[in-house]
Structures are given as structure tokens and as C-alpha cells.
Specification:
alpha+beta; six-stranded mixed beta sheet; five-stranded mixed beta sheet; 7 helices; 23% helix; globular
């Protein structure tokens, strides 16, 4: 028997060190060639490190969250024969999950369990986990479980890698195991437990980018109220007429179109600012970043050349990119290169938000939820669909007056939707 020592590989792009995000194996595990051993995080992507050999893990070179230099010992594997005494580098990365180029929302994220349970072994909705073990679940499922009074660690997940789904919560309730059935007094019991969550991997990168953006840019926000009754009527009409053949339209492609048209008069918003070189680059191409929530954090896939896309083309691309980001399949190129960002919390959009800029961009347009309110129109009180745009700008580059005029231009386009298509 011998020892095969694998060093941290050179992932390229001049990277000298990476963060060890997660181990997929532990000491004593038997591994096979091409099995993923660990995830490492660069400034741009999460990279899987596969094994080049068959063998048994005898030593790990670091702990999750540790920053390791390229060339340092990653893992030692016992193999048949003499082993590799020269300490080879790990093979090239086989998978990349790009890092979000910016962050603005607080999203709980954590590494997946080191040895995920395949869905095929699920025998029922109830499973016993350790008290400190946090099962895989989306934020929506976690909130649903909280609302139902269910301890998520007691629910067996039927999704990929044991992920808990909404259906699993319903199955759990059907067996009468919900905490909601516990004595009412239990809801008022004193609690003294604590939980510590290590900030590593994607969450660390998100935190660093948020801090960097807020420290470097001179943020200011501007909020404008918009009557979206007419654009919503147009959207409903187009969906009724063409939805079956061309696909359903959400409000987002209309917003993308409004950005494209408004930027013709306000090119200073479609720009990047290199604060070290003190250079502003205005771009003719409109590459719109669309903030998308995923289980690992906020990602911003990019709709490239939005200025050349129709409504349905934009809608299809937004949908494709959002699905790729949520499924961890978006490429690095699809998550970089934006010139201006559009962010929306959908139905949870609240009244006002203060988006964080996606550096080196100088503008981000935030969409709040649509609500029906009584409004005075031509002296009459009528019910209208109203929505706020909460947008942020880099005051080092964008003047307050220009920002206000830019958002008001978007408002005019959305309130008179025919103007979106008048050339």
C-alpha cells in the first residue's frame, strides 16, 4: 500500500489561494476515481475537486472556511502500490457554480451535508437528525415549516440530496407529527439554545462583495411611484392572445424594455466606474443583470444585448437564466458582464427598498410589489395598480437630478406603454 497526496490545484486566472468550502468525504471513506472530494471557492466560482485515484482517505489538509494556497496539501489517499510520492496536483475542476457578482438581500446559506442521503432511501416523512444538523431546504420551505410549527430536522426530504420539499411537510402533517399538535404550553416554554453558523463559501463571498460595494461607492437611493394599471392590462391582453404560442409575459421584460429605451437619453446610467483608474466607461450594449434568488444565495444572471431583444425574447432569456441560476447550472459568463442591474422581490417586494450597487456598475433599479390603491385621476377617485421603483446610484458618477429624471423617464414609459415601442 502507498499514499497518494493531492495538492490544491492551480485553477487558473492567476489565483494564488482559494477557500476550502466543503468536504464531500471524511477520513476513512473509500473513494473512486472522478468522485468529488471537496468544493473550493475562488473569487468567481465554486469549483469541484475530483479524485484522480481509487483508495481510502487517510488525511484531510484543511477545514471548511480555511483559505489554502495553491500547491498546499489538500488530501492524502491510501492506494494500492507505491502511491504518488511526488504529490500530484488534483485534476482540473469538473464543475463550476459561479459566484453572484453582487448581493443586496440577506439570505441564509450553508454547506450541504458532507454525505447527502439519496432520495431513493426515503421510507417515510419522519427522520431523526442530530439537534445541530440543518437539513437542506429552500427559504420558502423553511418559512412554511416555521408557519406550520414543524421542526424541519424531523422531516425526511424526498428531493435531491435529501432536500426537504413542500410535499414532505404535507406528508409529515398527514402523519400527525407536527409540533402544532403539541400542548399549547410548549409554545411558551423558555428557550436557551444558541446556534452558530460559520460564514464560509458563497455566504462569505456575498458578505465581502456587499461590504466592498457599500464602502467604495457613494450610494444614494431614489424612490418613484408608478401607475402600472395600463402596462398590466397590456400584459394580460398579450398573454391571453399569444401566451399559448409565445409564452407568458411577466412584468420583468417590460421593465427591461423600459430600461433600454430610457438609457438612450441617459447613457451615463449604463456605465462602469473604475475607481482606481478614475475612468468611467459608458457602454452602448445594454447587458441587464436580473437578480435571482437561489438556495445558495443571490445570483445575478445577465440578459445580454437587451437592446436587441423583443418582449418575448427577453422573457425567454430571463426565464432560462433564472432556472439555470437556481439549479446551479449557470456558467461564469452568464453571471458576469452586466452594465446595469434590475432587482425584484416580486410579491414580497414591500413598499420601499434600498438596493446595493453591483460594482463596478453605477445604477441598480429595484422593483417593489404592485398594490391596488384609491387614486385621484382627473378629479375622480379610482382604483389603480401602483408600484414603487426603489433605485440606487453611485453619487460619485451620477448626479441626483439625473437619477430622478432617469427614473421618471422609466415611469413615463410604463404608464404610457405604447411609447415603449414607438421609434
Amino acid at each position: 500500500m502507498g499514499t497518494h497526496v493531492i495538492k490544491m490545484p492551480d485553477i487558473g486566472e492567476g489565483i494564488a489561494e482559494v477557500e476550502l468550502s466543503q468536504w464531500h468525504v471524511k477520513v476513512g471513506d473509500l473513494v473512486v476515481e472522478d468522485q468529488v472530494l471537496a468544493d473550493v471557492m475562488t473569487d468567481k466560482a465554486m469549483v469541484d475537486i475530483p479524485s484522480p485515484v481509487h483508495g481510502k482517505v487517510i488525511a484531510l489538509g484543511g477545514q471548511p472556511g480555511e483559505v489554502m494556497a495553491v500547491g498546499s496539501v489538500l488530501i492524502s489517499i491510501e492506494v494500492e502500490g507505491a502511491g504518488n510520492l511526488k504529490e500530484s496536483a488534483a485534476p482540473a475542476a469538473v464543475k463550476e457554480t459561479p459566484v453572484a457578482p453582487k448581493v443586496e438581500a440577506v439570505v441564509e446559506s450553508k454547506p450541504a451535508p458532507a454525505a447527502p442521503r439519496p432520495a431513493a432511501v426515503c421510507q417515510g416523512p419522519i427522520v431523526a437528525r442530530e439537534a445541530d444538523e440543518r437539513p437542506l431546504a429552500s427559504p420558502a420551505v423553511r418559512k412554511h415549516a416555521l408557519d406550520l410549527g414543524i421542526q424541519l430536522r424531523l422531516v425526511r426530504g424526498s428531493g435531491p440530496a435529501g432536500r426537504v420539499l413542500h410535499e414532505d411537510l404535507e406528508a409529515y402533517l398527514a402523519q400527525g407529527q407536527s409540533n402544532a399538535s403539541a400542548p399549547a404550553a410548549a409554545a411558551y416554554a423558555q428557550r436557551n439554545d444558541e446556534e452558530q453558523i460559520q460564514v464560509i463559501g458563497m455566504r462569505r463571498k456575498i458578505a465581502q462583495r456587499m461590504q466592498d460595494a457599500t464602502q467604495r461607492a457613494a450610494h444614494f437611493s431614489y424612490v418613484e411611484e408608478i401607475d402600472v394599471t395600463a402596462i398590466e392590462e397590456l400584459r394580460a391582453h398579450l398573454n391571453e392572445k399569444h401566451g399559448a404560442s409565445r409564452g407568458k409575459l411577466t412584468l420583468l421584460p417590460f421593465l427591461v424594455r423600459a430600461l433600454v429605451v430610457a438609457l438612450r437619453d441617459f447613457p451615463q446610467m449604463n456605465a462602469r466606474y473604475d475607481d482606481e483608474a478614475q475612468v468611467i466607461t459608458r457602454l452602448g450594449a445594454v447587458h441587464v443583470g436580473v437578480a435571482t434568488q437561489s438556495d445558495v444565495g443571490l445570483m445575478v444572471p445577465v440578459v445580454r444585448h437587451a437592446e436587441a431583444r423583443s418582449l418575448w425574447d427577453s422573457a425567454a432569456e430571463i426565464s432560462r437564466l433564472a432556472n439555470a441560476a437556481r439549479n446551479g447550472k449557470a456558467s461564469r459568463d452568464e453571471l458576469s458582464g452586466s452594465t446595469i442591474t434590475l432587482t425584484s422581490l416580486g410579491a414580497l417586494g414591500g413598499i420601499v427598498s434600498t438596493p446595493v450597487l453591483n460594482l463596478p456598475e453605477v445604477a441598480i433599479v429595484g422593483v417593489n410589489k404592485i398594490v391596488e390603491r384609491p387614486m385621484v385621476v382627473k378629479g375622480q377617485v379610482v382604483i389603480r395598480k401602483m408600484m414603487n421603483l426603489s433605485s440606487s446610484f453611485d453619487h460619485r458618477v451620477v448626479d441626483g437630478m439625473d437619477a430622478a429624471l432617469f427614473i421618471r423617464a422609466i415611469r413615463g414609459l410604463l404608464e404610457q406603454p405604447a411609447t415603449l415601442f414607438v421609434e
